[in-house]
Design goal:
The protein is α+β, with helices and mostly antiparallel strands. The protein has one domain. Strands 1, 2, 3, 4, 5, 6, 7, 8 and 9 form a 9-stranded antiparallel beta sheet that branches. α6 packs antiparallel against α7.
Length: 240
């Protein structure tokens, strides 16, 4: 009993520490231009992370991006994938955290990316993806996007700007992928051959695992699988 109470106390302290960290973070820099951070960095190394559900839950509470895309209890913590990347940006090595957080409804997934230093103003970037997996229809659509804690719902593929100047004073142009080519996603990442190979052979369960793997292991190649790219103007100050 005492051991159980001590474990619960440690969990509560950890969650409290992450929550305090989240609300005390300083404002992040403005995003300038029409930026896709994955096109600005060069991948160098990747290491898979084995996070516990408690660790993931604490990160969810601390992230304004993730909390803006889904409620903490909507996430399927048992199937969350995490990796840490070393990338090169402007001649400097920086770190990037990548997370794939599937939702319990089996139709949506949050892809979350956090850079140790801002990439052209982007410190965090997140996507709420809706995926359809059936024998005759496979589709990945972006339903919402978060940048530095600001979340913008996307009901259609917008084409509002090409540079920040198109957005007027204090505006910034955000680019994103509206739809991805499923066949390209399946074959673009060598690190995900096990899951994506089963998808290519017709396993629908393998297709979901393939998507989780690619978004965490090879976010750069998934960008190149974009069928239609959209842009929108954002006028809100970045939050923590």
């Amino acid at each position: 009993m005492k051991k159980h109470m001590l474990s619960m106390l440690m969990v509560l302290l950890l969650i409290g520490a992450y929550a305090t960290y989240a609300v005390s973070q300083p404002k992040l820099p403005e995003v300038k231009g029409c930026v896709n951070p994955f096109r600005e960095v060069k991948p160098l190394e990747r290491k898979a992370e084995n996070w516990s559900s408690v660790h993931v839950f604490a990160k969810v509470l601390a992230s304004k991006d993730i909390r803006g895309l889904a409620k903490p209890w909507e996430i399927d913590y048992k199937n969350v994938k995490v990796a840490k990347h070393t990338v090169e940006y402007n001649g400097e090595k920086i770190e990037m955290l990548a997370m794939a957080l599937p939702l319990k409804d089996g139709k949506h997934l949050i892809a979350y990316y956090e850079f140790s230093k801002p990439v052209q103003g982007v410190k965090t970037r997140s996507y709420l993806l809706e995926f359809t997996i059936s024998e005759d229809n496979k589709r990945i659509a972006t339903k919402a996007i978060g940048t530095n804690g600001e979340v913008t719902p996307l009901s259609t593929c917008k084409h509002e700007c090409s540079t920040a100047s198109d957005c007027g004073y204090f505006g910034r142009c955000i680019s994103y992928c509206c739809d991805r080519d499923w066949g390209c996603v399946v074959y673009c990442c060598g690190d995900c051959l096990f899951y994506c190979g089963s998808c290519a052979r017709g396993s629908l369960g393998g297709c979901a695992a393939c998507l989780y793997c690619v978004l965490v292991s090879c976010p750069y190649c998934s960008v190149n699988c974009c069928e239609e790219e959209g842009t929108y103007c954002d006028y809100l100050d970045p939050g923590p």
